[in-house]
Structures are given as C-alpha cells and as structure tokens.
Write a structure and sequence with these properties.
This protein is an alpha+beta fold. It folds into two domains: 99 residues, no CATH class; 288 residues, Tubby Protein, Chain A (Alpha-Beta Barrel). The protein contains ten helices and 18 strands. The strands form four sheets. It has a twelve-stranded antiparallel barrel with strand order 1-2-3-4-5-6-9-10-13-16-17-18. Strands 7-12 form a two-stranded antiparallel ribbon. A two-stranded antiparallel sheet has the order 8-11. The chain is globular, with a radius of gyration of 22 Å. It starts with a helix and ends in a 9-residue tail after the last helix. It holds the Pfam family Tub. This is Tubby-like F-box protein. Belongs to the TUB family.
Length: 414
C-alpha cells in the first residue's frame, strides 16, 4: 500500500481517538494534551481500537516496515505527529514504534514524552523558545526557532510560578492547564531560596540507579489514598543552580554555576555517556496520579520537614557530578555593553541572557573543544519571548529548569 494511504489511515484513526475522548466527557483534557508536542503515556482503551481498526492485527514484519517508513518520512513537526498516532493504536504498535524511534541524542528529534528527559544531540543543538505570560505567571516552552504566525508551534513543557513566604516554586508540567503535583502530567519543579540566589531542580522520577546522600530537605508528594509500597512518593533532587552575590554592586552580567548530580563529568569525556531514561515509571504514575474524572476529589498531601530523612539525590555512579558555568562575556567599547556571540539567536540585551559551558579541571581529561562547546544558551528576542537552545548532555527538562531560574528576582546579584 502506498505510504500516503497509510498516513491517511493513521490520521483517520487519530480523529477517531478524539471523537472517543469527547464522548467520554474528557474533551478538555484530551485537547490540552493533543496541543502538546508530545502525547500522554497513557493511551485510550486498546479494546475500542481493536474492534474498530483492522490495522491492530497486522503481521509484525509488515507492521515494522510500515512504521519504519512513516518514521523516516516524517522528521519534523507537526507532520511527525503521525509517528505518535502509530504508538496510540494498540500495544503491539506502541512497542514496535518505541523500538524504531531513536533518542534525541541519536536522531536530534523529540517524539514521545520521555524524549524531554533524555539528553539532546551532541552536535547541533535543539532550538526552542519560551513565551512568558505575566498575567498568569506561566512560562511555555515551544519547539521551534521563533514563534510562528499561526500559533501552531508544538508545546514541550509548561511552568507556573508560585510565590511563597520563604521561597519561589516553578511547577513544571507536560500541559499548560494542569499544574497539579498529583497529575500524571507533572514532571518536576524548581525551588529557590529566600534571596533567589540558589535553586534546586526536582525530578518526579528516579533519573538514575545509584544514590548519594543529600543535605536538602525531604519533599514528598502523594495522594491520600494512593501511595505505592515500592516507590517513595517524593521529588528527587537532581541539580542546583547558584548565582553569585554582587556585594560591591559592580556592573556586569550575572555569574552562575549549575551542579547536575544526575550527570557525571565523565559524560563529556571521550567515549562517555549520559544517563538516558527509557520510559516514565508506570507504577509510579498509576499510584500517584488520579484519573481525570476524579481530579480534585481527593486532597494532595505535600510534606516538607527537616525532621524527615533527606531527599535522595540520584547519580549515575560515584563519580564527580557535572558542573556548568556561564561563559564570560567581553566588554564592547563602542556599544558600551557586555557581549556574547549567540549566533543570531538573541537580539535584545538583557541581564537574563547567558551561555553555559562545562566547568572542568585538567584532571578531568576533557578535550579543549568540549570545554568551549556551549551546552545551553538562553536569551531575549522580544517582549516576553526568549530562545532556549540546548544540547548533550542536558535534557529539555533540565535546560528548561535552568532557564526558569533566570526569571526569578535577584536583587542581591545585580
């Protein structure tokens, strides 16, 4: 069968999924997720598609060939949504699609939700932009160079800023209209100290295998009646961001350091690899996330107490964690300002603009080329519009969390 016919069938199946969702009374949730760049891990009922769809019982060899052809032909969004539709047909389609689709490090593309927690490509960065909404204190991360005219860009992640008495939280979600920490769209958070000089990145899942002790406070989240006996219900500290105090009030850009406990410094050495999760833990989501129909009926209990055991920090080994520092700008005499080469991706001067490179010692045996490589850059291009370009070994989630720290007020650092 021609490839165009296959894709037409897949699009029809997608429309059928939307109709089923609306009939189930969950149209708002489904539309909000379909606008996202990635699809939710929990697909609608397989039995409904098995009955309606003759594609569900295809021979594995034929199915493999179909999905491979679709994946190779649709490399950019929004056309790449067809690949996500393949994974939503049934379990057999989903498993084969997951085997075919490569990680962002290997192919430079984002497809499934877990892609947002996998390292980016090593050579060319993945280019995104952030839209800030001051009225609602939300920050939306979109995939693309700059905002498009038709507002058709794909949403990757969303964050909401919540001011508290002693700190500020940025709650990060897969969708822009659900920031509940009991939801299965919750992926993590960023928390600042009182002065806004130190931030901690929390992940909702275990990013690695090994554990090293942490001095941070325990931050647990669980549903009152849904607690997994096998998985601790808490956020896992994976990194810290520190801004240096500007005591003398000297002119110049902010100075920052990022320590990523979940990424070893060996990841940027020759032959090194960064931790790459393959899926969200299903049992964790099933135990902690209420069904859409029960949303808001049970309270979410959030505990944070110094008397509780310290929150574990998960690390890929006992090696030293990766540290990033902002690249030092140069002073431009004619323009009378500090300058960095953003290669055209930043057009407006701002104290928030930065580039991060690896902070390594000679003993780490990191090549000079790798030391000069910009791992993350962030900058302003218009009113409430900022670009974010990241690459290996950072994931989209980690890069987004680091950039969110730049939006918090820091009077002691400027």
């Amino acid at each position: 069968m021609p490839l165009k016919s296959i894709m037409r069938e897949l699009k029809e199946m997608k429309e059928g999924i939307g109709n089923i969702s609306k009939r189930g009374g969950e149209s708002k949730l489904w539309r909000s997720r379909s606008r996202s760049h990635v699809a939710p891990d929990q697909a609608p009922s397989e039995s409904e598609f098995a009955e309606q769809n003759p594609w569900a019982n295809l021979p594995p060899e034929l199915l493999l060939d179909i999905i491979q052809r679709v994946e190779e032909s649709e490399t950019a969004w929004p056309a790449r949504a067809v690949v996500v539709f393949c994974a939503a047909v049934c379990r057999s389609w989903r498993e084969i699609t997951k085997e075919i689709v490569k990680t962002p490090e290997q192919c430079g593309r984002l497809t499934f939700p877990i892609s947002l927690k996998q390292p980016g490509p090593r050579e060319s960065p993945i280019q995104c932009y952030i839209r800030r909404d001051r009225a609602t204190s939300t920050y939306l991360l979109f995939y693309g160079l700059v905002p498009s005219e038709g507002e058709s860009d794909k949403l990757l992640l969303a964050a909401r800023k919540i001011r508290r008495a002693t700190c500020t939280d940025f709650v990060i979600s897969l969708v822009a209209d659900d920031f509940s920490r009991a939801s299965n769209t919750y992926v993590g958070k960023l928390r600042s100290n009182f002065l806004g000089t130190k931030f901690t990145i929390y992940d909702s899942q275990l990013p690695c295998d090994s554990i090293i002790p942490s001095s941070t406070r325990s931050s647990r989240r669980f549903h009152s009646k849904q607690v997994s006996p096998r998985l601790p219900a808490c956020n896992y500290s994976i990194g810290t961001i520190t801004y240096e105090l500007n005591v003398l009030r000297t002119r110049g850009p902010r100075r920052m350091h990022c320590i990523l406990h979940s990424i070893p410094v060996s990841a940027i050495q020759e032959g090194g690899t960064a931790p790459t999760p393959s899926a969200f833990p299903q049992s964790f989501d099933e135990q902690l996330s209420p069904l859409p129909s029960s949303k808001g009926k049970e309270p979410v209990i959030e505990t944070s107490s110094p008397s509780l055991p310290a929150t574990p920090v998960f690390s890929p080994g006992t090696g030293e964690p990766l540290t990033l520092k902002n690249k030092a700008p140069r002073w431009h005499e004619q323009l009378q300002c500090w300058c960095l080469n953003f290669k055209g991706r930043v057009t407006v001067a701002s104290v928030k603009n930065f580039q991060l490179v690896a902070a390594v010692e000679p003993s780490h045996n990191v090549s000079p080329e790798e030391q000069e490589k910009v791992i993350l850059q962030f900058g302003k291009i218009g009113k409430d519009i900022f670009t974010m370009d990241y690459r290996y070994p950072l994931s989209a989630f980690q890069a987004f969390a680091i950039c969110l720290s730049s939006f918090d007020t820091k009077p002691a650092c400027e």
